[in-house]
Amino acid sequence: MKKIFKIIVALAGVVILAAVTISMFITSGPNTSGKTVIQLFSTKTENAATYKELIKKFEKANPTIKVQLSSPSNAATVLKTDLAKNTLPDVMAVGGDTTFTSLQSSEGLRNLANESYAKKTLPAYRKMITSLYSQKGLYAVPYATNASGIIYNKDLFKKAGISTTPKTWNELIADAKLLKSKGIVPFESAYKDTWTTMAVWNQITSNSIPSSWITKRLKNQTTFAASHQQVMSKFLEITSYSQSDYMGTSYNQANIDFAKGKVAMIVNGNYEIPAFTPLNSKINSDMFMMPISNNPADNKVTSGVDVAFAIAKVSTHVSADNKLVAFLMENKNAEIYNKEQFSFSAIKGVKQTSPLVAGITDQVNKGNVINYPDHYYPAALDMTQVLTQAGLNAANHMALNTNIAKSLKHADSLFNAANVQEK
Amino acid sequence: MFRRNNMRQAKKKINFTYYVMVVPMALLFFAFHTIPFLRGVFYSFTDWKGFGSWHFVGLRNYGYMFTNSNIGSAYAFTFKFAIAATILVNVIALLIALGLTSKIKFQNTLKAIYFLPYMLGTLIVGFIFNFVFGNMLPSLGKFLHWGFLETNILGTSHAWIGILIVTVWQGLAFNTLIYMSGLQSVSPDLYEAASLDGVTPWQKFWKITFPLIAPFFTINLVLSVKGYLMVFDQIMAMTSGGPGNSTTSISVLIYNQGFQGSQFAIQSANAVMLFIIVAAISLFQLNVLNKREDRIEN
Q1: Are B152 and A417 an interchain contact pair (Cβ–Cβ within 8 Å)?
Q2: Hey, is A268 helix, strand or coil?
Q3: In a 3-state reduction of DSSP, which class is residue B169?
Q4: What Å distances lie between residue A148 and A249, A301, A327, B261, CA to CA?
Q5: What value does the mean pLDDT take over residues B245-269?
Q6: What range(s) does the ABC transmembrane type-1 domain occupy (chain B) (predicted)?
Q7: Which of A3, A74, A80, A257 to mutate to test the interface with B (most CBs of B within 10 A)?
Q8: How does pLDDT run across A203-223, given as a tens digit for each residue?
Q9: What is the ipTM of this complex?
């Protein structure tokens, strides 16, 4: 009996040793002979090539530092599992959304308010970050901003005889009708990738519902059903002018179709441009502000912080992290980033000059912008579920009014279920 | 006295090699499966969001599960899916196994073809079928002017059927393999004797083959139900639970809401419930089917 026990103990020892050694290999990563290794984690996949290019330049200028870039496709989930393990990447490039809010509320981030690069940023975008939490301090420095709108094919507009972009909702729908009558698909919607529904919903909501609504909704003083009828109706109107299989079309497929000149418009944001330009470099496209109101002066561009840099408190080499962020935020590097990503800079003096976003640049520069409403929804509310269901109901020929009422009720019940835990 | 002596001898005879085989696996299982599971059970009684501080909340999370309509519909979908997939997989796998064990030409080639889907990862299969449903079938539908093929089935109310087809196609191989090994264990003498008695093929199957492979039927049924109640990969690859929540299985819901939605504790409670249900169903099946096996054998 003793012998068996001894053997079991010995075996347990071997197994534990093996497990520890293996885990050490996994966590320490490639050992790069005395260099400081810092991780740069990006929640976006579209800009990985640009980061790689900038990192190469950075490593050349700082030979003692090595940067490991990771930008997984399910980034929010990966970051949250990291958070659950209490290990965060050194530098995180996050969006100004609920993922960042969770990071911030876990108190895992450093306050960057006093860093020199933080002072280079535009106050309006700094405010978009600080408005996401109640504490004082700047826990992420805004870097690039996005702008939602409608991406359109100029050639197809010309072919249909449309010379100026629509300024009001009625004009937009009239143009869609005109395009349809000429045999051109007005909108390409890609609701198989559920997040694309939010690009439409957010633009309509931000221009129709006052930003104070969410505070009231969290206290159950109002509901979606009471206030969002117009929003849902406009959302469904866009789908009614979309291609027939809008529920089964993926984001990639939409980009392919747009690059081939098969569709006139896509309701989404500037971040989609680098996804279709490589497919057809000669495409004659531009963006315009999605006009929601029938009073042109009321319309605003829905814009938010697309990339902001945050540094983890647990990072063991903060000076190297700071160096990397400062480097990325140098004007000439920010210019490279914005040129390649068709984004707008949060840094003073860095301008976007691409003709592919020319129709919207003025509005952004004027500051005629409004933030994304879903950044303030509870994290557990999956609004895309409501919107894809509404789209599916429409595809199944449900009567419009029934669909609106049903979908908004659905949204309210999901909101209530999600709101319980937030307290 | 004699008996005790005998027992002692029996104890001494145990070879250490068996412990070497069994113990490391048990330890690994405990470290990487049992401990995380117990931690999950623990967190299901707290309000942990997946990060930050937490407090005990007793059974609140379990109560919350009954108020959230999403959780209810995920259970309904998962049961519907598991039942349909189990029936289809077992019926088709048994038919294929019968065909492959009879004397046919190209037997080995056909076996390889039927086993191929099982060797591909579920995610890969999901992505392949994403393309098939999204691009190939709609183009075919347009070419043939078949309206029902022109839209991507994954974007309709029938999305679950698309996932079911892929799941069945991929799951078949494993069950077929088990049925085949079952069929090969049936002695050919029995069939010879039966053919002398002049039984019909139908009688041959129901009176001889099926009773003799009953243990294999049991294990297939239990494994299928257990596996399909926890369906995850193919759904993530093909619809991630949409459109709406029409293809959100319990596992998909746990993953999405638990991590993305910061409802770690609530979804831990959900996972504990799923575990209890799967374990209960498996035990129930084993009990009922074993009794049936016993009846057949006597």
Answers
A1: no
A2: strand
A3: helix
A4: 20, 7, 28, 24
A5: 89
A6: 75-285
A7: A80
A8: 999 999 998 999 999 999 999
A9: 0.80
Using a cut of 0.90, tell me whether the model's pTM lies above it: no
Per-residue pLDDT tens digits for A372-384:
898 888 888 889 9
What pLDDT digit, counting tens, does each position of A148-169 carry?
999 999 999 999 999 999 999 9
Give me the pLDDT at residue A28, please: 47
Per-residue pLDDT band for B42 (boundaries 50, 70, 90) equals very high
For residue A284, give the 3-state DSSP assignment: coil
Q: Is the peptide bond before B243 cis (omega within 30 degrees of 0)?
A: yes
Which tokens in the block code for residue B209? 């083959």
Residues of B in contact with A255 (CB under 8 A): none
CB A203 within 8 A of CB A266: no
Contact status, residue A59 vs residue A88, Cβ threshold 8 Å: no
Considering chain A, what is the average pLDDT of its residues? 89
Q: Do B242 and A192 touch (CB under 8 A)?
A: yes
The rounded percent of chain A whose pLDDT value lies above 90 is: 62
Q: How far is A41 from chain B (nearest CA, A)?
A: 17
**A to B CB pairs, distance under 8 Å:** 139
Q: How confident is the model at residue A46 (pLDDT cuts 50, 70, 90)?
A: confident
User: A355 to chain B nearest CA, in Å?
Assistant: 32
Given an 8 Å threshold on Cβ–Cβ distance, is B67 in contact with A385?
no
Nearest to B243 among A244, A247, A379 (CB): A247
Give the CA distances from residue B17 to residues A7, A8, B6, B240, B297, in Å, rounded to whole numbers and listed in that order: 10, 11, 22, 46, 35
Verify whether the Cβ–Cβ distance A248 to B51 is below 8 Å.
Answer: no
The CA distance from B179 to B94, in Å, is: 6
- Shortest CA distance from A251: residue in chain B: B134
b/e per residue, A150-178, with b = 16+ CB within 10 A? bbbbbebbeebebeebbbbbebbbebbeb
Interface test with A, best of B28, B29, B262 (most A CBs within 10 A): B262
Q: What is the DSSP string of A57-99?
A: HHHHH-TTEEEEEE--TTHHHHHHHHHHHT---SEEEE-SSHH
Which residue of chain A has the CA closest to B266?
A421
